[in-house]
Design goal:
seven-stranded mixed β-sheet; Rossmann fold
Length: 173
């Protein structure tokens, strides 16, 4: 299985091809994310990992389309990004995109938006926070918020901010 760690920095996913803007340990491909196309053939990767990287790209829409291009059919794209309500979303001046529960609906099959980019992915999973164990109170709140995402983002996220949001997208080709 071939995995692309998009924006790997110094913490590359073990066994993956690490791509980053800056050279460093674990970076296999140095490439500016805002230069298209990326230096990979179409349908190359079985999985793409984007850990705190998509919020930094200059052209988010084109980047997602490009990641779809290099993903194999049925590839899994895992995205972890700062949620718009979390303090890290705005602290970093290099962040250009802010993420909500429905951000990837634009690219999803059957989504409410219509564009050339509609239908590239199926959203298989999304959740406030990341999929790992937390304390009991945080776990209960996270489960509640994930069951009612619209209520959470409309009324509660400024009281109980989500640090991150996580998505799993399946490439449709």
């Amino acid at each position: 299985m071939l995995v692309l760690d998009f924006g790997c920095g110094q913490a590359k996913t073990p066994g993956s091809v690490g791509m980053d803007l800056y050279p460093g340990d674990g970076v296999d491909v140095v490439h500016d994310f805002n230069v298209f196309p990326y230096p990979f053939e179409a349908d190359t990767f079985d999985e793409i990992v984007c850990n705190s990287s998509l919020e930094h790209v200059g052209d988010f829409m084109r980047t997602v389309v490009e990641l779809h291009r290099v993903a194999k059919p049925n590839a899994l794209v895992k995205v972890s990004a700062p949620h718009f309500s979390g303090p890290d979303a705005y602290r970093d001046p290099t962040h250009k995109t802010f993420f909500a529960y429905t951000t990837f609906n634009f690219f999803a099959e059957g989504g409410s938006y219509r564009s050339d980019s509609t239908g590239l992915f199926r959203v298989e999973r999304r959740m406030f926070g990341v999929p790992r164990k937390t304390g009991l109170i945080k776990s209960v709140l996270k489960n509640f918020f994930n069951r009612m995402p619209d209520l959470y983002e409309t009324h509660l996220c400024w009281i109980f901010p989500a640090k991150t949001i996580y998505y799993e997208l399946r490439a449709l080709k």
